[in-house]
Amino acid sequence: MHGIIEADGLTRTFGDVTAVDHVTLTIPQGELFGLLGPNGSGKTTMNKLMTGQIRPTEGTVRVMDLDVAEDPLGVRRKVGIIPEQETPPSFLTAEEYLHFVGKIRGLTDMEERANSWFNILEFRDKKEVLCKDLSRGTRQKLMVAQAFLHEPPLAFIDEPLINLDPVMQRTVKDFLQEYVFKGGTVFFSTHILGIAEEICTSFAILSEGSILHHGTIDELRMDNRKLEGFFLERVRGTAHA
Amino acid sequence: MRELFVAMLKEEWRIHSTMTGNLGFALFPIMIAGFTFMAAWILPVLPGIVPIDTLAFIVHALFALMGVMVGSFGIMGREFMNRRFGQASLIAYSSRSLPVSERRIFSVFIAKDVVFYLFLWVIPAVLGIAAAAPFIGLSPGLPPLLLLTFTLSFLEGLAIVFFLSTIYAHSPRIAGALIAGAALAIGGASLVGIGPAVLLPPYAFLLAPSALPLLASLVLIAVPGACSIVWATVDYPDATRRFPNALTGLVRRFRFFSNPWFVAKDALDLIRSEGGIAKLVFSFLMPLALIWVFLSVLFRFIPGISPLIVFAILLGVISSTTYNWLTEFESFSSYAFLPVDVRTVLMSKLQSYVVINIVSLAVLLAIAFGTGEAGLVVPAVLVFVSVSAYTLAVTVRLTGLYPSTMLYNARVFFTYIAAIAPVLLILIFSSIGHPWVAAAGVLLLPVAWILISRASLRWTVWEMPSY
Ligand SMILES: Nc1ncnc2c1ncn2[C@@H]1O[C@H](COP(=O)(O)OP(=O)(O)O)[C@@H](O)[C@H]1O
Ligand SMILES: [Mg+2]
Known about the structure:
The complex is a heterodimer. In chain A, helix 6 (166-181) links the parallel strand 7 (154-158) and strand 8. Chain A is of the alpha/beta class. Chain A contains nine helices and ten strands. Chain B has two domains: 1-236, no CATH class; 246-467, no CATH class. Chain B has helices at 2-20, 22-40, 52-84, 102-136, 142-170, 172-191, 201-207, 211-231, 247-253, 260-272, 278-298, 307-320, 323-327, 342-370, 377-399, 403-406, 410-430, 444-461. The A-B interface holds A 48, 51, 53-54, 72-73, 76-77, 81-83, 85, 87-93, 95-96, 99-101, 103-105, 128-130, 132-133, 136 and B 79, 82-83, 86-87, 240-248, 251, 260-261, 265, 268-269, 271-273, 329-331, 333-334, 336-341, 463. Adenosine-5'-diphosphate (ADP) binds at residues 14, 17, 19, 37, 39-45 of chain A.
């Protein structure tokens, strides 16, 4: 199978911690893929490996037909990324930050692009506020906008809804579903199972750096199973083994 | 209060030791002691070259200067740490969640800085001299005395910069008037032959220990210190400041650079961060003025040496410390998820550095033409540019985007000094009698270029440790 993301034996250790342990995973284009795992299971490390922010200890990963280790910049040029920690430069305003990212990405008509995001995520009133003075929720909105500014075909997003209120979570969830419906692909990491069950098309369960299961939400539905029960069974199963 | 203090100290230790390694950081003060131990051996031969009083004054002035630098960093400290280590991860920022007032936290924060730097620099420096004392025939009473006078000098610098910056926060005009008044007073005093001892009572105390200079030192520390704590505006303003888009205009202005948006961002960081442009005055122009005053006094004793050339060389080194400002709000993690590589970030820092150096160059030209040394302006400019580029290149190679923490690794700091100090000494000494020789400093430019290219390779493969 040819996927938009293809990981093969992907491994990353930090000292004696193996954060990601021989992960082999193929994700076809057009999925809203959820990477589910408890805290510390290696989701953020997976995200960083797949976007060339850190190098693997072993194994390879290809994203949109590029070898990530060989061309990390090429990968990041194509995809959009929402990092787990939102760290926009302190002394730019929200608006300036979007323009800044636009310059880095070589985009034109930034005025329009930025404004459309201020409208979609309803934070136009904050566009002149310095990033350091924004609330975490607003900063997270800014990170969402920054990731999709260049209309990427693939987005990696790491816990992107955690600081948003329910209304805004709904807006972002709707946006993601629409985005996938139009042909985009999303690699979505979270430990909040409810969100994954609601919007993801396929998912994998990650525990202690290893993939325990990879399947679709529809399969679960057909078996009449809830994601939560399934997840706990799998994760606890290995913990005891 | 004590708990808060201890917690802050631990935090400071943790930040430094994760960045530089526990051992490397622990060795730092030992290395400082090693340096002063070795430097002390030259003491017996120096009186033939520089009067010992002058030397003592220089060293005290250096400690005062360090106080000024640490102080201006402390002013910006809160924002600096907030930026680098993520919100709320630091005690200094968790004030809102602690049942303690911001003013108290700020005072403890400053106290922590003082203790930290005393143990990191002042005490080890004195211990090194103390260790050498028996070999070079220094009186055993001198090191304890030096500990006192160095500490007082350091605190004097710190208190004065805090005071001025507090005044500045209320009214830039009053602060400006105070600085101008002080400068005039100093100038006037030196014209009528009142020595520098009056400015630095700790130094006067060293020369002739008595109650008056000691009292003067304590007053010079306590009064400005107390005023700045009482008058400090440490509360976060409730009204968030708003700014219309200034980035686009700045990008246009810097369009001749390869990545003008980074330079524009650096400019906004500098202008909008706490202290703003005042930083330039307190931690850059003020020390420079002091150094100039001091060189012109000092070189009256040494014929054949051009104060302008020596100033140009020192200006190069001091200019390279502005790299700290350019990086203090920076972490590569802000870009790691964008299509930007470490090389691009470092290169754009160099471009911002060029912009800042225009200020240094202006200072140099002003001094050259203002003091009748214009004849030497060409070698002075050449040696300034070369030294500035070279020391910056060494800094970037050794510390990447993290100069303020990485330099506190003993090995890194040793390499830094070993790479820079001999070059400075060679330049200064070879220019005695033949000031034009300093222009040979341009030989440093290719070396700087090689170091910078190595730096981008080195920092591309480096991964930031997590705290
Ligand atoms: N830079 C790092 N240095 C050391 N250990 C790390 C680093 N990054 C992650 N880890 C470790 O790797 C494991 C996985 O972390 P992470 O990928 O952040 O998990 P998750 O995102 O699923 O919570 C954890 O045990 C974490 O402590
Ligand atoms: Mg994570």
